[in-house]
Structure formats: structure tokens, C-alpha cells
Specification:
The structure holds 2 protein chains of 2 kinds. Helices cover 74% and strands 1% of the residues of chain A. Chain A is mainly α. Chain A has one domain: ABC transporter involved in vitamin B12 uptake, BtuC. A two-stranded antiparallel sheet of chain A has the order 1-2. A 6-stranded mixed beta sheet of chain B has the order 6-7-8-3-9-10, with helices on both faces. In chain B, strands 2-1-4-5 form a 4-stranded antiparallel beta sheet, covered by helices on one side. Chain B starts with a strand and ends with a helix. Chain B folds into 2 domains: 171 residues, P-loop containing nucleotide triphosphate hydrolases (Rossmann fold), CATH 3.40.50.300; 66 residues, no CATH class. The longest helix of chain B has 18 residues. In chain B, a hairpin with a 2-residue loop joins strand 1 and strand 2. Chain B is an alpha/beta fold. At the A-B interface, helix 8, helix 9 and helix 15 of A face helix 2, helix 3 and helix 5 of B.
Amino acid sequence: MLRHRLDLAAAAVLVGAMAVLPLVFPSNYLIGVLTVSAIYGIWAVSWDFMSGLTGRENFGHSLFIGVGAYTAGFLNTSFGANPWWSLPAAMVVSVLFALLIGLPTLRLKGPYFALAMLSGSVIMQRLMLIFWEHTGGEEGINGLAPLIRSQLGFYYFVLGTLVATTVVLLALARSHWGLILRAVRGDEATCQAAGINVTFYKIASLVISAACAGAGGAMYAHYQLQVSPQLFAVVTSITIITMVYVGGMGTIYGPVGGAILLVLATELLREFGEWRLMVYSCALILILFFLPTGLVAPLWQRLRGLLRRKGKDPLVPVAADVMEQQA
Amino acid sequence: MSALLEVENLNKHFGGLHALRDFACTVQRGEIVGILGPNGAGKTTLYNLLTGFIPPDPGARIVFDGHSLLRRPPYRIAALGISRTFQLCRPFAGLTVLENVVVGALGSQRERGADLQARGRELLARVGLAGREEVPVAVLSYGDQRRLEIARALAARPRLLLLDEPFAGLGSGEMADLSALIRQVHAQEGLTVVLIEHKLREFMSLVQRVVALDFGAVIAQGTPEEIVRNPAVVEAYIGRDAEVAEAAHAA
């Protein structure tokens, strides 16, 4: 799955750094930022698994996030359920929404799926306001119990989930399943002519993607200890897509790097004060303009190439490398 | 020999256009059949109907090896053992040459658990693409893309191979190579092949039987020699394609 020892080493260094950082600089603020970046990592990697591989863009990933978070909110506060029930419940409800939107729209060509996801998230956000008596309106639901009392413990739980999600999705993406998804991106008609049930693969991938995003939403709810309609906001979906682009679409591991990088960048740019958004946006536009294949994954592929040559490793062209360079 | 594919009463209207008119044809096991016809005669429509990409008008009968193909989605028809190529090459962009062939085998139940990589390499060697396995498809020449299409179609181990204008856009040397390849897979695997073409010369030396179409209707059936002498075929072609007269002389 990790083709090269260098991949494994880099992943170990990154995860190790993420794990050790709060021990070296013990501050609740840092732990908070890292927790949020890991949750965004889960969202970005799950987006990339479906949309990055198949090329069917999902402009409403926040739908699954919001649905997962509200499921956690209702279960935990209205029904007083143990917070640990939130994760499986959020996954189930997100999957139901994925089927609701995916079944009718993913059979079709054209922009229907992208538009349905976008409008689905907008509609859910409005519904949370319209049924304010049940959902708490703008205020949302407050007073959720934390999953793990210790902030550091919760961070490690989220980080562990991110690593596990990435490993599983990366393994799937490099299996025949992933090959089929990339083939769907290449040409749906040829896939069908090759005997592949294209609709099944697209819907199944969306279901997997939604389950991960929903679980991430529930974690976010139990981190913030509250949920609000803002979770459904289109801007969340766009942020996630940006993270995937910066990471390198279709590479699965890239978007994790993209998410961590952008969350940290947002924090580092705080000293720019009110100029922050401007600096952030300009940096993003420059990245997307000059590096259309993204920043994280292509950079790593270069670095890996250099290290390999230095280590006198035989430089064999690997199919997946070519694929990544193309992606 | 027994019938592998039986088609009766196949019609297709696109609005007011009667694209295929009462088409009927039987393909025997192990045959190489050519579908001949000028542009717009309904050849590609026929393939799209046979492979489930578009539904036929009511009343049609399409039976492949005892299974009706009506109301089956394309991937199920493919799973029964019918592989097709497309008139315009449609490789999976973003995949390598080898990956393209492997995907071709993934939809086939018969390939479960097989070493698809090894089989893919073997197929590529057979179509003359050895050594290009890891190359992205985008850099292949048009002729190589055609070979790749055929390797991909063969990867599913089909019983019936439908080739849509396999010679389109090829040079004469490439055409001879491709003819040899089609003959070879036909001879080695007993594969039944149907091909659409309007390039007559290559076609006539390759196929055993020809079904000639014009304006969506079958105008003649027979051996290549019979077809080029058939007055209806000559009439349909003369003035539109001088090659037919040439081929008739050659035959």
C-alpha cells in the first residue's frame, strides 16, 4: 500500500510530529488547532476518495458533516445517549443521506450530483433554522458531553482516527476498487463496456465518503460541545475542496497534508489581523494558479525522487508514480 | 456451428429518423462477420443497441447464447461475454497502458482471482505494446490506442468481440498488422468477431461473411465476393466511395 520505505518513513515522521508537538509545547490552544486540523484531514481525505478519484465533484460535503454533528447533538442531549453512540449513529445517518442523494443523481451524467449535494447542504441549513423549536435555530444544540474528558486524549483519538481512515482509504484507492474509480473518471462508457457497474461503484464510494465525513462531524460536535446550522455552510465544503486541491487531488494522502497545512496557515496568519483573509486567499489563488496539480503530493513525489536517487535505490518507474504525476 | 447471436426485428427511431430498419442477422460461433455500410447507415447504432447503450424500439429480439439482451444494462451484457471497442478510441485517461487493460478484465466474473497484471502484460505483448506498460495512455499514438482498445476488450475474455471501425485513422502498414492480430485472436481463441468498417480492402480479406447496410436497412448478405458484385451494394456505394469499384476489380 505504501509503495516505498520512504513513504512509510515520511508518514511516520508526520504522524510522530503531530503526536509529539503538544507534548513539547503544552498549550490548550495548540491542541485545539491540531484537533481541528485532524478533523479537517478526515473530511478532506473522505472527499478525495469519492470525488478526487471518480472526478464527480461533491460541492456539499458539509451536508454529511452537519448531519453527523446534529445526529450526535440530538442523541447526546435529547436522548441522553452515551457520547460514544454518536459516532456509529452519525455514520448511519450520513450514509442514508448519501443514498438519498446518490441513488437518483449518480446514475446521471452531467452536473446533477454536484448540484444536488450543494442544494442538499443549503436546504438542511435552512431546515435547521425553520424547525428552530427542535433544532435550537441559530443557537443550535448546546451542552454536548465530551467524548474524552482530557483534551489531549481526545486529540490523540482524532489523530488515530485520521491515520486509520487514511490508511484504509489509501489501501482501497490502490486496490482494484480504486483502479475502477479512476477508470470511471477516465470514461464511464468504456467502463460499462468492460462489464463494470459504474453506478454501483460511484454510490458505494459516496457511501464510504459520507460515513467518514459524518463520523468527523460527530467528533467535531463533541469537540465544540455544541452544533449549529453553520456546520452545513457551503463555505465549509469549499474549504475542504480547497484543501484537497492544495494537497493534490486523487492522491488520498495529499489532502491530509493540505488540510493540516491550511488549518495551521489560518492560525499562523492571525498576526495579519484583518488582512488575514486577504493574504490567505491570495496565497491560495497563487498556489492553484501555479501548481494546478496541488502542492503537498507533487512536492513529496519530487522529494522522494531526490532521496531515492541519493540512496542509490534503483529508479524503477512505478505505475502509480506515473498516475500520480498525471493526476 | 451454432448461432451465438440472433437478432430479429431490430428497429430504432431517433425522432423522425429511422436509424435501423427491421435489422435481422445471425452470427454463428467462430465466424468473422463484417458489417458494411456507408457513413450514417446505422452501423454504430446497431452496436449501441446490441451492447445495451441505447434501448431498441419495442418488438425486437436479441438473443446471445440463449440469453435475451433486451432491458439489460451495458455492464450486464458485457458480463455475458460481449466486448466492444469504440469508433473513437476511448481509453481511460489518467491511467497507464497496463492499468487500462487490467480494468478491462475487472468487470468479468471469469477473471476473479487471476493474475490480472500478468495477463495484462501478455495481452499487451500480443497487440505489440510490450515495453509500454507503464506509459500514461495520453502519450500513445492513435494506432497504439487502437491496439490498446483491442487488448482491453480481449482482457475480459469475451466470446463475441464487436469492433467499431478498427481501421479508422490507421496507415496501411498498421492496418495489415491489425488484420493479422484480429485473425490471430480469432484463430487462437475461437473468438467470434463482428466488425464494422467502410474501408473495403482490408475488410474483404478478413471477414468470412458480410452484412451490408444502407439507410438503416440490410441490403445484402453474403461472402465478400458476392457482396462486391451485388448490384444493390454497388449502387449504394458508387459515387460515394470509389474504393468499392476498386475492390470489386481486385476480388
